[in-house]
Design a protein that fits this description.
By secondary structure, the chain is an alpha/beta fold. The protein is about 70% helix and about 10% strand. A five-stranded mixed beta sheet has the order 2-1-3-4-5, sandwiched between helices. α13 (about 320-330) runs antiparallel to α14 (about 335-365). The two termini are about 50 Å apart.
């Protein structure tokens, strides 16, 4: 029976390939930790600003009730609707409470008192949490007033969703797909292509030619950069035709910021190619990178619902900032004044990753 020698041979080979063994054991463990610890579908503690035009004890009591629902964290009191809109467009707030001047007067006269909740509905999960929390707060405050006054005083909470009035999931997901696909394909294609050339021996042939190392690296990156722009264009067109995804902002700004994101991922792919020895290992490392990209960047699950360590890990991903750029330009129509910080961070990622990968690549091929 030749089975046992064959099994022993495969086990010895697997033990020698420590990288593959680590991926086989590490990926399931990472999936368990990320899915079990970091992912929360129930969104709470939404950053909320308040425009209190009534400025009465009763309006402050409503704000307190809203905070006690657990769905809202009151971060700031604003003085105007323009300031309110600015906070939401900057991403500093996901919701806003507007209490009109005649709020207290309506309560005193026993009429329905209306307040407004403005929700950034670009994220359907967050907007649903805001809507349900606002309804509970209105009902709770109306019940408290009924006990105090001995008569019912209804409080109407009017919810106004911004950027995605229909609260459609496609509006939130499709722009994110652009970032996820660009990240995955740029990293995988670059790392696999360079490892394949090393396996075939063609990379060493290029090294002995008069081409300098910088030109060699740029020659590897630039074609994939063009492919990334083509991919992005195709998804934008299909998203508009099939899912009615709006394009409210500047496409020039979007493509400009996409340049930094694509370069950052190409630099990461080049860096990965210096850490692995085979195409299989490059694929394993690429998919290991894909998992936190999907789970921690805000692509599928709101980052506000994640525990602090998961948010810190997500902050180390270029996709986290590119998703804010995509959704900000496509869905909100905001410009560079609101997105310059995300753009600057993407440029830092691009310069840092490409610089590190060039240094590592040069040492590898020497």
């Amino acid at each position: 029976m030749n089975l046992l020698p064959m099994l022993w041979k495969e086990l010895v080979q697997l033990r020698r390939d420590r990288f593959t063994l680590a991926m086989m054991l590490g990926i399931p463990a990472m999936q368990l930790v990320l899915f079990g610890y970091a992912i929360r579908t129930e969104v709470r503690h939404l950053h909320t600003v308040v425009l209190d035009e009534s400025r009465t004890p009763e309006s402050r009591a409503l704000v307190s009730v809203l905070r006690n629902t657990g769905n809202f964290d009151i971060t700031e009191l604003v003085d105007s609707r323009a300031e309110l809109a600015d906070r939401i467009e900057d991403g500093k707030a996901s919701a806003a409470l507007v209490i009109p001047r005649d709020y207290m007067r309506d309560i005193k006269r026993g009429r329905t008192a209306s307040v407004q909740i403005i929700v950034d509905a670009a994220d359907p999960m967050a907007s649903s949490a805001a809507m349900s929390g606002a309804a509970r707060a209105g009902s709770a405050r109306a019940a408290a007033l009924a006990q105090q006054r001995g008569a019912g005083t209804p409080i109407e909470v009017r919810v106004r969703p911004w950027y995605n009035p229909g609260v459609r999931d496609a509006v939130y997901i499709v722009p994110g797909i652009i970032g996820v696909l660009l990240s995955l394909t740029m990293v995988l294609i670059t790392s696999i292509a360079i490892v394949r050339e090393r396996e075939r021996g063609t990379l060493e042939q290029l090294i002995v030619t008069p081409i300098d190392k910088t030109s060699l690296i740029l020659g590897k990156i630039v074609p994939f950069l063009l492919i990334g722009f083509v991919q992005m264009t195709v998804i934008l067109i299909l998203g508009w035709l099939l899912f009615d995804i709006p394009v409210r902002g500047s496409l020039t700004l979007l493509y400009g910021m996409s340049f930094a994101f694509i370069v950052a991922n190409l630099g990461l792919g080049l860096l990965m190619s210096t850490l692995v020895r085979s195409q299989l290992q490059a694929m394993q490392l690429g998919f290991l990178f894909l998992l936190p990209n999907i789970l921690l960047s805000g692509f599928m699950f709101p980052r506000d619902a994640m525990p602090a360590p998961a948010q810190w890990l997500g902050s180390a991903l270029p996709l986290t900032y590119f998703l804010q750029v995509l959704r900000g330009i496509l869905l909100k129509g905001i410009g560079f004044t609101h997105l310059w910080q995300e753009g600057a961070i993407l440029v830092l990622f691009a310069v840092g990753l490409v610089g590190l990968s060039v240094i590592r690549f040069s040492k590898t091929i020497e």
